[in-house]
Amino acid sequence: MRKLILIGLVGLAAQLVDGGLGMGYGVTSSSLLLLVGLTPALASASVHLAEVGTNVASGLSHWRLGNVDWSLVLRLGVPGAVGAFAGATFLSNLSTVWAGPLMAVILAALGAYILARFAFRPPAVSHARVTPHTSQFLVPLGLLGGFVDATGGGGWGPVSTTSLLSAGKTAPRTVIGSVDTSEFLVSLFASIGFLAALGTSGLDFRIVGVLLVGGLIAAPLAAWLVTKLPARVLGTAVGGLIVVTNLRNVLAALGASPTTQWVALGAVVLLWFTLVGHSLVQHRRQAAAVVAERSETLEPEPA
Q: What does R_g of the chain's alpha carbons equal in angstroms?
C-alpha cells in the first residue's frame, strides 16, 4: 500500500514537472518503476497507459488556457504515434538482459541533456502563438521523439519540446501546451504496441491507476503553472534527479564495482547541486535585470 501511495505521489509530481516544462513525466515515472522492480517493457507500458488519461486532462487544460496550436499537434503527434508504436514493439521483443541497461542509458542521457540544457543554455523565447515550422521539420522530429519515448519509458518532451524551444520560433507556452496535447497520440499508440506484444500479462493495473490519479490531480495546476515556474531552475533540478536515479544501473551494466558506483554517484550529486545553485543565481539576475529595465522605461523624463 505504501508503495502505491508513493507511486501516486510520483505521478502527481511528474505531471507538475511535465506541465511546467513540457517534459519529464515519462522519464521520472519510469525511473521510479525500474527502481521498484518492474521490467523495462512493463515500466514503459504502465507509464504510457497512465499517460493516455493524464494527456487528455493536460491537453484540455492547456486548450482552455489558449496554449495549443492544433496544426502543430497533428503534424507532430501523428508521426510521433508511428514512432511510438515501433519503439514499443522493439522494446517488447528485446531480451530483458539488454532492455534494462538500454533503458537506463536512454533515461540517464535524457536527464543529462535536460540538466545541461537548462543549466547552461535555457531555451530562447518567442511570442509566436502559431508555429512557423513545416512538416519537413516536424515529421522526422515526431518519429524520433515517439521511438525514443517508447523505448526509454519517456523522452517525447526532452526530444520534441527542447528541439522546438531551441529553435526560438514559437512561444514557450504554445510549445509546451501543444507537445503535451500531442503526447496523447504517442501514449495511445505506444500502449497499443505494448499490449499487442505483451498482452496484459504482468501488468499491475493498480500501478497504472495510482499514476493516473496523481497525474489527473496535477494536470490543471500544471497547465496554469507553465507561465509561473522558473523553468531554468526546475529543468536543472529534474534533469539531475533523472541522472542520479539511473546512474547506478548504467555503471552496473558497465561492470563498475559498488565502491566506484557510490563514488561516481556522490560526485554527480555534488555537481547537480552546484548546477541547481548556478541556475537559481542566474534566474534571479535575469529577473532583477528585467525589473530594472521596466523601471527605466517607466521613469518620467526630466522637465
A: 19
Domain count, the chain: 1
Q: Which residues contact 230 (CB under 8 A, 6 or more apart)?
A: 280, 283
The answer as to whether 303 is a domain residue is no
- Does the predicted TM-score (pTM) go above 0.85? no
What pLDDT, in 10s, does the model give residues 122-166?
Answer: 766 556 677 788 889 999 999 998 998 888 777 787 788 877 876
Whether the CB-CB separation of 244 and 268 falls below 8 Å is answered with yes
Q: Collect all residues with Cβ–Cβ distance below 8 Å to 9 and sequence separation of at least 6.
A: 214
Question: Which residues of the chain register pLDDT less than 70?
Answer: 19-22, 95-97, 99-100, 123-128, 166, 168, 201-202, 219, 222-229, 231, 296-303
Residue 20: give the domain boundaries. Answer: 2-298
Q: Is residue 223 part of a domain?
A: yes
Q: What SS3 string covers the chain? A: CHHHHHHHHHHHHHHHHHHHHCCCHHHHHHHHHHHCCCCHHHHHHHHHHHHHHHHHHHHHHHHHCCCCCHHHHHHHHHHHHHHHHHHHHHHHCCCHHHHHHHHHHHHHHHHHHHHHHHHHCCCCCCCCCCCCCCHHHHHHHHHHHHHHHHHHCCCHHHHHHHHHHHHCCCCHHHHHHHHHHHHHHHHHHHHHHHHHHHCCCCCCHHHHHHHHHHHHHHHHHHHHHCCCCCHHHHHHHHHHHHHHHHHHHHHHHCCCCHHHHHHHHHHHHHHHHHHHHHHHHHHHHHHHHHHHHHHHHHCCCCC
Nearest Cα neighbor of 190 from 87, 90, 39, 107 is: 87
